[in-house]
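Q: Study each token:
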Amino acid sequence: MNDAATPDHGAGTPGGDNDVSSTPDSTPDSAPDGTGSPTRRTVLRTSAGVAGAGVALGARGASSATAATDRIRPPEAAGIERPAPPRQGRTMAGVPFQRRGTVRLGIIGLGNRGDSMLGLFLALPGVRVVALCDPVRTKTERSAARVVAAGQPSPALYTNGEDDYLRLCERGDLDLVYVATPWETHFAMAKAALLGGKHVGVECPVAMELDELWGLVDLSERTRRHCMQLENCCYGRNEMRILRMAHAGRFGELLHGAGAYNHDLRDLMFDPDYYEGPWRRLWHTRLRGDLYPNHGFGPVANYMDVNRGDRAVSIASFGTPALGLAEYREAHMPPGDPSFKESYVSADRTISMVRTAKGRLIRLEHDVSTPHPYSRINSLGGTKGVFEDYPARIYLEPDHSNHQWGDFARYADWDHWLWKEHANPPGGHGGMDYIMLFRLIQTMRLGLVPDFDVYDAAVWTAPVPLSHQSIKAQGAPLKIPDFTRGEWRRSRPGVDSAKPGE
């Protein structure tokens, strides 16, 4: 799920159409999974058994919370790194999409997030929404009506229970599956899409466990299909401007950065209509660490070319007591509300320090349980100066002196070409959602390499399980796996892309 200055959402969106063949983008294995035709029985189900944004998890007891925690492998000390599992396919780094005139798209999840993104997909040229899936049929029918109103054929609907996304993923006329559902369903749905021969874009976080992250890396490599974390904050105007300036050397040698998801969500997490069922709040009963690192980690990782010349090697995390949600519940929820059966363990404020192979430091923060203004921090520092966001301010040599911040607006010439081309994009979150989708569809239609891949998805999400384990281990630094299996040493383009010729 993506969130900028407004709340994030728990549901899904789009589909598209292809006027050329649907053959693989890169030489495929003999079958999508490399062994034989996928069936529904081959798809790993999540422990929660929830497949759509409209399905509530229901109240869980302590045994369920313990099971979710205990499935995560014990922490590895920073000086000890398990060898990467043997590669089952070939790297997906630098693999382009197959060129296609129209992108045929299927959407899984049509709650707040999915329904909002549907309108943006419909506004993009060369996208056809072919199939929609949500177990709440009224949502799916409402979204289908929007597709028809936009002048497209009526999409196929998949509303027959929480597993009907499997039938959508088996369709032969989809190029991309978009997943915007509760977090615990993301891995199973991404896996089903990859096994079905589709590229897949997943809202944050892409999975919740290290083994699941490795599973998606292996599947992407075997099926020759991209699995992408649709991190909209990487496409924010400020983030893209800083990215270009950093890569041009304006900050000198990069030394440190910071990113966060500090967003007071207490009222929304206790709102039964916003997050259908308590699925998001219940994660605070299961994991102690950073539940949503991607918004802060993704942009800073891009500044530092993580997976493209540098890599994140370790993380050490610390957490405050978990007090905020219980206090809010006591003050705002009626006696007897089911939430009083919940015991919250997730730290109100999590602070993590990530170290890279080049010795750089990235600070990550997460806080959705206490009152404070919205901030993603979004800071970058080097030998020639520093930028800090919220509010945006900059200090660079030789431009600034006397310890006075400079006006970041004066650096508008450094805007990325996407923002120069789309100065006032539609949609929420300041337009970054539209910019992200525009660029994704552009790369698919022109047969380009995507701006980020499964390795980025895995690294940006790894703090979810690792921060939990580090906090349990009193802040012990833990190794971040090299999901690229050595490919990170090779410099290659990312979000700081050149404007393509048509």
About this structure: The chain has a mean pLDDT of 87.
